[in-house]
Design brief:
With 92 residues, the chain is of the alpha+beta class. Helices cover 34% and strands 11% of the residues.
Length: 92
Amino acid sequence: PWVARDVEMFVKTYDIPLNEEYDTIHVRRGDKLEEEARDAVINYWKSQGYTDEDNLPTNYIPFAKYLERYDPNECVAKGVDTIERNVYVATD
């Protein structure tokens, strides 16, 4: 119970609306990429044509890849110019 309480108190320090929906993106950086997410990094760069696992352009997945989850045709489909979203980006 104390973890939930502490998280709630921490989130409230950001003064963000809590009664709205948020998209969340968890960006992996740092030591998580060396072990836990290394396969995802290698697979991403292989999909971009890089084959040497020891000589990749970066040791992380570019942020643009995370944004691919959003459909670029969504505005056209809905007949609007823009779609506003609340996005919470977490990183480690």
